[in-house]
Amino acid sequence: MSRIGKLPVPVPKSVKVTLGPGHVKVEGPKGQLERTLPADISVKQVDGELVFERPSDAFRHRALHGLVRSLVANMVEGVDKGFTKQLELVGVGYRVAKQGEEVVLSLGYSHPIRFKPPKGISIDIQDQTKFTVSGISIEDVGQVAANLRGLRPPEPYKGKGVRYAGERVRRKPGKAGKGAKATA
């Protein structure tokens, strides 16, 4: 058995799960999510928990077993608590501000970058250099955070750029300076 796939997913009281053939719908206090699942993996609701079973030990079924369980577990957690990713700006003059629905980032380019978050994602700004991406879908939150980080990834010499909170950037030494001058 898959170590992940055989673990049941506890369903909180505030979350309602609707199961269909190859389909799952999860509703909770934060919203609702739907997903089409592979028909090979069966999902059953037993005693307030979701149990996942596979038909055989074939490689494809073993791979899907843990995947489906993780996807549904993230859906349940998302509609109950939600997901967040914290980002920070490092660099002189780098700042973030909110104008209506859009987020305006000054990242050292000749122009400010305007970013409109997709539906279901909210961006909260703590101060000029720290902001949070949050939503109920872990995939959407991670993708939007990665897109924002990709606007100016941290560079290895000074460490400037957009980074996840707590991310460590491997630094490189700059020029040595001694070998740069030509001796006569």
Tell me what the structure shows:
It is a single chain. This protein is α+β, with helices and mostly antiparallel strands and 184 residues long. The protein folds into two domains: 9-80, Outer Surface Protein A, domain 3 (Alpha-Beta Complex), CATH 3.90.930; 83-164, Outer Surface Protein A, domain 3 (Alpha-Beta Complex), CATH 3.90.930. The chain is built from two helices and 13 strands; from the N terminus they run E-E-E-E-E-E-H-E-E-E-E-E-E-H-E. The protein has helices at residues 59-80, 138-150, and strands at 9-10, 16-20, 23-28, 31-36, 42-46, 49-53, 83-90, 95-99, 102-106, 113-115, 121-127, 130-135, 161-164. The strands form four sheets. The chain has a four-stranded antiparallel sheet, covered by helices on one side. Strands 1-6-5 form a three-stranded antiparallel sheet. Strand 11 and strand 12 form a beta hairpin. The longest helix is centred in the middle third of the chain and has 22 residues, at 59-80. The chain is elongated. The termini are far apart. The model has no long low-confidence stretch (mean pLDDT 92).
Q: What is the terminal-to-terminal distance?
A: 73 Å
Q: Beta-strand level of the residues, as a percent range?
A: 35-45%
Count the E strands. 13
Q: What would CATH call the homologous superfamily of the largest domain?
A: Ribosomal protein L6
Overall CATH architecture of the largest domain: Alpha-Beta Complex
Q: What's the CATH first level of the largest domain?
A: Alpha Beta
Contiguous helical run count = 2
Q: Detail the poorly predicted runs.
A: none
H/E topology pattern: EEEEEEHEEEEEEHE
- What would the principal axes of the Cα set say about the shape? elongated
Radius of gyration: 23 Å
Major sheet characteristics: 4 strands, antiparallel
Q: Compute the average pLDDT.
A: 92
Structural class: alpha+beta
